[in-house]
Every structure is written in C-alpha cells, then in structure tokens.
Amino acid sequence: MDSLYYALASGSLCTKAEVYSDGEFFGEPTEVALVRLGERSGLKQAYLKRTYETLDTMPFDAERKRMSVLVKKGKEHWSLVKGAPDVIMQRCSHIMVGTQVVPFTQEHRRKAKEALESMADQALRVLATAYKPFGAKAPAASLWEQGLILTGLIGMLDPPRPEVAAAIRAARLGGIRTIMVTGDHKKTAAAIADKIGLLTPSASQVLTGAEWDGLTPLQQREQIKTVAVFARVAPGHKLSIVRALQDNGEIVAMTGDGVNDAPAVKEAHIGVSMGIQGTDVTREASDMVLLDDNFGTIISAVREGRGIYDNIRKFIRYLLGCNVGEVLTMLIATLLGLPLPLVPMQILWMNLVTDGLPAIALGLDPTDKDSMLEKPRNPREGVFARGLLKRILFSGVMISLGALALFVFSLWYYPGDVLRSRTMAFTTLVLAQLVFSFQCRWEHHSIFERGIWGNTYLILAVLLSGGAQVLIIYNSFMVNMFQTVPLTKDDWILVGLFSVFPLFVETVLRMVKKMLRRHLSLLKV
C-alpha cells in the first residue's frame, strides 16, 4: 500500500463525516470533501470501515489543530491522524515515499514546506495526513501522535461565496472595517483575503496567532489598526482581538459557529452566530443569528438598521416640524392681536389626518440607496443630533410664516371675511405640511434632486389627506363642522404659492450653501 492509500484512508476514517447508502454525505464541509475524495478515488468509506475497526477517537480541537483515531485490522493497531500541516509535520519522524517509509529528513521537510506554500498561495486549504503502526498491543493515547509517518498534503479549494466581495466593499463604503479571523495557513488566508478584496493600503497586514501573542497589549492595540487578517488563531486569540478593538474605541461585531467561539461572541458588542453550522452554545451567546450563514446578510441587516433609524428621524422631523408651525401660527397671531387663524376643530383635523397619515408613511419609507455611503453614527448621539433640531425649528418657522402671511393678506384683501381668511390659512398650513412630508425623506437632498417618487405609501397618504382637505372645504356638512368656506380659483392660487414658500426658501438656502462650499473648496485648492 502506498502513501496515497494511507492519505485517503486517513481522510475517510479520521472523520465524523459519513456517506449514506443513498450516496448522500453528512458532516462538516471540509471532512465531507475528504470522504468524497476517497469515494471518487475508489476507496469507499464503507469498505474501509469494514476493514478497519475504529476503537477510539481524539476529536479535532481548535487548540490542538488535529484529529486522531485508533483503528484495528486483524490484530494490528494503527493511529490515523489529520490536521494542520505545520502541527502534523512537527510530530513526524518518517515520511512515506511511494511504498517506502524513510526518515523525514531536512530535505523532505523543505520539499513538504514548499508544496504547502505553493498550495497556500493558490488559496487552497491544506491538511496533512499521517499514521503510525503499533502492532498487536493497543497503545496509550499519548503515543498516537508521536513519531508519525507523513503520508500526504491534501489541498482543498473552499471558495468564498460570490456575494462576499460585494458585501465587504459595501461595508467599507459604509465605514465598516472587516477583519478575517481564521485557522487557515497564513498564506492561504492572505490569498483568500486578496481574492475578496479585503486587503487595502490602510489595512493589509496578515498576522498569525503566534505573532499576536508576541505583542504587548499596547502593541496589540496599535498593530490591530492595520491588520486585515488573523491566521492560525486559537479561540483565545479571538477574545483578545475583540478586546483590543474595544480598547481602541471600536464597536465590534464578532461572528462564530463553534463552542470555542462563544466567549468572543459574547464579549463583542454584537455577537453573531451561524444558524446552519452554529452550535447551540454560540447561538445562546449571540445577539443575532444568521439563518443562511451568509456574511452579506450582516451588511443587509446594517442597511436595514440604518433605514429604520433614518425613518425614526423622518417621523420626528415631520411631526414636530408641523406642530411647531401650528403653534407659532397661533402664538404670533395672538401676540399681533389678529383674529385666531385656526379653530380647535381645524387643529384637531390637522393632528389626526394631515399630520398622522404622512407621518406613518414616512415610517415605512424605503431605505435610501445612499445609506451605506455614510459613516456609522456615534452610538451616544441623541436622535436630534446632526442638526435635526435646527431643521425642525427652521421648517416650523417657514410653515408658520407662509400661513400667517397669507392670513394677514387675506384679512386685508377680504375685509370682514374672517372665515375665508381662516380657511385660506388653514388650507395653506395643511398643504405646506404635505409638501414638507416629501422634504423630510432626505436630510441632504431636495425634492428637485430626488423627486417625489419612491414611497407609494407617502404619495397615497398625501393624496388622501389633500382630498380630505378639499372635502371639508366644499362639503356642506363638513363646512359647518370645521367653520370653513369654499375657496375661489384665485384663492387656491394664493394658497398654492404660500404652501410652497417653505420649500422655496429651503431650496434656495441649500443652493447657496453648495455654492459657498464649492467656492471655498476651490480657494483651498
């Protein structure tokens, strides 16, 4: 029997993966790949299990980075081992070349290392296989992995999902830094990271767990600023990586699937576990479970989270802006000794209908396409941060000024007809608020840049509220209830002009700001 036979046998027997009678495979993907390799090479797992009786197992462990089984054929005992090449080769005293077992010399070690690095450069995940014969007497477990005979290096291509590169790119644009933490060989990890676009000029360093251990806590905090990949890590390394990032003031999300990942997942601000391959312990320790085990889902969740937070701000901006406009309209009219521009029923109408429906629609606004182009917000910032309170007050003042200006003009133009003036002011407030609802969809853009489309619920809410406003002006029953009068065509023209007054002012100011910024940037150049 040659080295290929023993390498395939180790992959098929030193495993938890199984092939069923119907040809289906069950187990962890890497182990399934090894069993499948044996099956396709003609060395069936079922045959090997009949030939070799498995007596005991030393399972794979992230610290040990290897797995061993003790098997028996007739009266002879063997240990079969597979694991990380550097770990296995350290425990080998001999190597099988063809069918001959020869000492594992420095020359053999050099060639094996060259083969390992060649496969790692191709982004292949490499496992080493080895065995040791013991004769008729079953050995102690401590002897299974000593003085091994190296039988081969097996390279497996474990390509990242197609969407991973796009997800990493989207995360980077959104101010989110991605760090890969893996048990793979350093060169394998670097090759995979390069394929998915993880390495950048500002974060291109690849560190091993051993190199990380050689740093002081202060050096770790400094070094981690430029590290993109951690290779050959143990579970304890993951915990120290999370803590180093947190010590630098970073908000950390940590993904994991195994039991050993649970401490790091729990320590992170946001623990993320795998729903398919994750263990119950890790899922219990996590804050979020990925049902599809897809990294891109995390970025989608971030995008949705930003959309929800933005919608809360839109909702608040609209409702408070409208209320400020209504309060100022009543307050200023009273201070100026003018007749009341609104009656209680009209105020109630605005709060229940023309304020409520668009506000709900804004809460359902689709996530903005530019949401992942913004940097993450400070978790300590209040909901009124980034100028929201100033926008609310400014919009409220503009809405109030438009309604009051028309109210004063109509009192002068229609002397003695307070009902008409009040109806015009009331309708101006309503329409100005409906126009304002479209402005609230964006903080850094105007309606003229983005248009009114994109939120069907808001369009329906505005049409419904506008139609209801027309109804209470012309329906005889509603006219008496809300103390309104029908408006003429000229009245509607004035109402329309004063309703868009806030939008006009905001658009002009936005254009002036952009011109000033452009002018200042040119001066700096």
Polypeptide structure, described:
- The chain contains 22 helices and 15 strands.
- The protein has helices at about 5-15, 30-40, 45-50, 85-90, 105-120, 160-175, 185-195, 210-215, 215-225, 235-245, 260-265, 280-285, 295-335, 345-355, 355-365, 390-415, 420-440, 445-450, 455-475, 475-480, 490-500, 500-525, and strands at about 20, 25, 55-60, 65-75, 75-85, 90-95, 100-105, 125-135, 150-155, 180, 205-210, 225-230, 255, 270-275, 290.
- It has a 7-stranded mixed sheet with strand order 3-4-5-8-9-6-7, with helices on both faces. Strands 10-12-11 form a 3-stranded parallel sheet. A 3-stranded parallel sheet has the order 13-14-15.
- The chain has about 525 residues and is α/β, with parallel strands linked by helices.
- The chain is about 55% helix and about 15% strand.
- The mean pLDDT is about 90.
- The longest helix has about 40 residues, at about 295-335.
- Helix 11 links the parallel strand 13 and strand 14 (about 270-275).
- It folds into 3 domains: about 5-155, Calcium-transporting ATPase, cytoplasmic domain N, CATH 3.40.1110; about 160-300, HAD superfamily/HAD-like (Rossmann fold); about 305-525, Calcium-transporting ATPase, transmembrane domain (Up-down Bundle).
